[in-house]
Amino acid sequence: MRKLMLALAATVAFAATAYAEPVRISVGSYNLNNLPFPVAAGLGLYEKEGLEVTVENFASGGSKTLQALVAGSTDIAVGFYDHTIQMQSQNKSVVGFVQLASNSGLVLAGGKNSTFDPAKPETIKGAKIGITAPGSSSDFFVRYYLQRHNLSADDVSLIGVGSGSAAVAALEQGKVDLLVNYDPAATFIEAKGVGKILIDARSDAGAKEIYGGIYPTSVLYATQDYIDANPETIQKVTNATVKALKWMNTHTPEEIVATLPQEFISGDAETYTKAVANAKAIFSVDGKFNETDIQTPLAVLKSFNEKVAAKDIDLSKTFTNAFVGKALAAGTN
User: Fold this and answer.
1) Which of 114-128, 224-238, 257-271 is the least confident region?
2) Which helix (H) or strand (E) holds 87?
3) Which CATH number characterizes residue 299's domain?
4) Which position among 10, 48, 233, 274 has the lowest Cβ density within 10 Å, counted as fewest Cβ atoms?
5) Are residue 88 and residue 111 in the same domain, yes or no?
6) Is the separation of the CB atoms in 259 and 43 below 8 Å?
7) Looking at the predicted structure, is the pLDDT value of residue 115 above 90?
8) β strands within the chain, DSSP E
9) What does pTM read for this prediction?
């Protein structure tokens, strides 16, 4: 009997450790702003938290990911912070709980035949401009630039081209004259001789020139209903992601690339590693939201989004540092 009881106890213990909690996470394209997510996956950090993550990649951009989240077909999204503001203007509660990228990371590049000169903003008129997708942050980038220079979206043609190699190909093939995109596309453009970066918001100085401040981008977010119903799941995802951010801060681009699932890497490994090096400065070191920086996306959206401009946005309801705070207090390393 004692042997039987011990065997049953061992079986129960094994079952408890073997069980992995399922969670669906969707990502709005594999641009490098979202890099901490696949790093965490590649390091096995979600598994170590007892999670079984199902990933869906919406290569067309973050707006599709947001739609999936609101529709309930995914639990958590890797998308851009400004979408939480957008959703509040539509009376929907979407909340960021880990910040991945603390700055824009966007560039505007011109193809070989582009006639746009940033010193003469009016020369952008008539241009075909590639963005990841309508309603994405690259779309916001263009609209804000136009608005600041007394131009409108009617002065250009905005075309969704996705991200990564597909976006670079659109510029190379002349399907668009200008491209607004992130790394690795930004690095590929110059490395392949496809075009030239004309406006660079990857640095703090560049972001301030474009937006008037630092523009936080990639975050993990979920609906408030899901967070309220699944706080332990959110905490586990946060723990793993904060560990990934801290790991990235102390490792080289080569080491970072070595951890990634193969499907995340686009182009040749050498150029992709250069892209990671170029983008590394935008990543958060601890996952916390900065209450000053989140004012910038609000100002940008208010300038051209009528629903946001008409709504009294409460930024305190668009993010929480509670889960990151617990992860840091627990000494994630």
Assistant:
1) 257-271
2) helix 82-89
3) 3.40.190.10
4) 10
5) no
6) yes
7) yes
8) 21-27, 51-57, 76-80, 94-99, 107-111, 128-131, 157-160, 178-181, 195-200, 218-223
9) 0.85
Residue 48 domain boundaries: 2-103+215-329
Length in residues, the chain: 333
DSSP helix/strand/coil, 214? coil
User: In DSSP terms, which residues pair with 145 in a beta bridge?
Assistant: none
Last residue of a domain, one of 151, 173, 200: 200
Cβ atoms within 10 Å, residue 178: 23
Q: How many CB atoms lie within 10 A of CB 101?
A: 25
- Taking alpha carbons only, the member of 320, 242, 323 closest to residue 285 is 242
Q: What's phi and psi for 49, nearest 5 deg?
A: -85, 0
Q: Among positive and negative, which fits the CA dihedral 272, 47, 68, 316? A: negative
Judge if 92 and 142 occupy the same domain.
Answer: no
Q: Is the pLDDT of residue 207 over 80?
A: yes
Answer yes or no: do 302 and 244 share one domain.
Answer: yes
